[in-house]
Specification:
- The chain is α+β, with helices and mostly antiparallel strands and 487 residues long.
- 32% of the residues lie in helices and 20% in strands.
- It contains 16 helices and 23 strands.
- The strands form 7 sheets. Strands 12-11-15-16-20-19 form a 6-stranded mixed sheet, with helices on one face.
């Protein structure tokens, strides 16, 4: 059943729509953007809900609406204004003296995406709190998922066997033979490499082979890297904008090991008592959970041409660790990922190769469908906040939240200031601050980074400016106007 009370409470607390819920007034009839939102939710994993009868501009106050007329008009729009037609269901709920209309939009079949608005021929997706138009490049991210991707099997004709790392190769062959009885019967190393997809029949390294075992895969894939940044630590000198920036490259196992060490330097811990009476360290970002998240991001990121310009992004703030990779979940939803312990690999060959590659504390890919249970065991099972996952079809984000006792509080300058209390920011505003980092940004790239519509982004920037957290350089509405966090 649709829990309207909890839903409205969350919207009001955030002062914003969410990735899965869009509120519209509809007091004057069908909202003009309804077809756009239908397209966005139909293209999103899991679909979403449109709630009519809530006015966002008035703090999501209830307004009277003509439910019967709205149902008839929106049913027609879902059939005729978007292509392919969108499947919807209606529900109604009494709330604060008025009656709300909820439109439950089903996700469209992967083989039918993208859903486009007929009038414009454009397709949309949901951001954290609004709809955004897909670029031609991003459209490819939906189209390539209509069938099983095979980009990891492609040969790299300009590469040779000398571009594969000898030590990694030796360990790989040993582990493969020890793990797979069929491979153990193959005495010829070249045959094992060919049978597992590291090289092609002609002996040319494949995409998967180079990414997993190459000396420096970034020679061919410059953005198959982890781009990391951390917020300034407490006590940093005045004016420090970024605490640490790092770029991890090399073969996949090297990137994981290097990134794990980097995260550890920004991970705080406390001493706790175990159930058996022993004293132990509890980390805010458990290494075993971080390792699983990094492995998943690298192994399952989209390798199609549309994503070649996009790196995996690792961000650590005073409240959370956020890891985003290009390409959403393939073949399953977040709900099924968490409840059914299912697995579905986008890059089948790369996944298979990584099952035979060792890290300092395990393999890149362990037994199938065990990664999420390990993350949950290391976090929820140890009394830490539950991880959060967001699938946005063309990207996937995993978030680990610092425990309340380990989260830091922004330092207040000793110099007198008009504002002596720390401003409270909503979750959406925090995402804008994270995207800003400590650089100046114009509106267009900032909207792309936050996956917010320009209109929604401007609203949050206005709120942040009123709280003294963001500065604007330039005139309102001008393309060259930049925004930055207040020092």
């Amino acid at each position: 059943m649709f829990d309207v009370t909890s839903m409205v409470r969350r919207l009001r607390a955030e002062n914003s729509d969410s990735q899965s819920v869009e509120a519209k007034s509809a007091a004057g009839g069908v909202p003009s953007s309804i077809a756009t939102t239908l397209s966005a939710f139909a293209n999103m994993p899991g679909g979403g809900d449109i709630v009519l009868g809530l006015d966002e501009r008035s703090g999501f106050a209830v307004v009277p609406i003509d439910i019967s007329a709205l149902k008839k008009a929106i049913a027609s729009i879902a059939r005729q204004a978007v292509k392919p037609p969108v499947t919807i269901e209606f529900a109604e709920a009494d709330f604060e003296g008025e009656r709300l209309l909820i439109i439950q939009v089903s996700e469209m079949s992967t083989s039918a995406k993208p859903c486009v608005v007929k009038r414009t021929g454009r397709a949309y997706l949901r951001s954290w709190d609004g709809d955004f138009e897909l670029s031609e490049v991003e459209l490819q991210g939906l189209l390539v998922n209509r069938t099983q991707p095979r980009f990891d099997t492609r040969p790299i004709d300009t590469a040779t066997r000398d571009d594969l790392q000898p030590d990694l190769m030796a360990d790989y062959l040993l582990t493969a033979r020890l793990t797979d009885r069929g491979l153990a019967r193959l005495a010829d190393d070249e045959l094992v490499l060919r049978k597992t997809g590291v090289v092609t029949v002609a002996g040319t390294p494949s995409v998967a082979g180079l990414l997993a075992l190459g000396e420096y895969p970034q020679e061919w894939f410059p953005n198959y890297v982890i781009q990391a940044a951390a917020s300034p630590e407490p006590g940093s000198p005045a004016g420090t904008r970024v605490g640490d920036i790092a770029r991890f490259s090399g073969p996949l196992p090297q990137m994981i090991d290097d990134a794990l060490i980097w995260v550890a330097t920004h991970s705080r811990h406390r001493i706790v008592d175990s159930a058996d009476g022993r004293v132990r360290d509890q980390f805010d970002f458990p290494p075993s959970a971080v390792r699983e998240l990094l492995s998943n991001a690298l192994v399952h990121r989209d390798l199609a041409e549309w994503s070649w310009s996009r790196a995996i992004e690792l961000r650590i703030t005073d409240t959370e660790l956020r890891l985003t990779n290009p390409g959403g979940l393939y073949g399953l939803t977040v709900a099924r990922l968490l409840t059914n312990q299912l697995t579905s690999a986008r890059n089948l060959t790369l996944t298979r190769i990584c099952q035979y590659i060792k890290l300092r504390d395990g393999r890149v890919v362990e037994a199938l469908a065990t990664g999420i249970p390990k993350i949950l065991e290391a976090t929820v099972g140890d009394g830490l906040p539950a991880p959060r996952f967001f699938d946005q079809a063309i990207s996937f984000t995993a978030i680990l939240t610092r425990p309340a006792g380990l989260a830091t509080t922004p330092q207040v300058s000793a110099a007198p200031r008009e504002q002596t209390t720390i401003p409270v920011v909503t979750g959406a505003e925090r995402r804008v601050l994270d995207a800003l980092g400590w650089k100046a940004h114009t509106l267009v790239p900032l909207a792309s980074a936050t996956l917010m519509s320009p209109q929604t982004l401007r609203k949050h920037l206005r709120n942040l400016r009123s709280k003294g957290l963001v500065e604007m350089d330039g005139g309102s509405g001008q393309r060259k106007t930049t925004y930055r966090q207040t020092p």
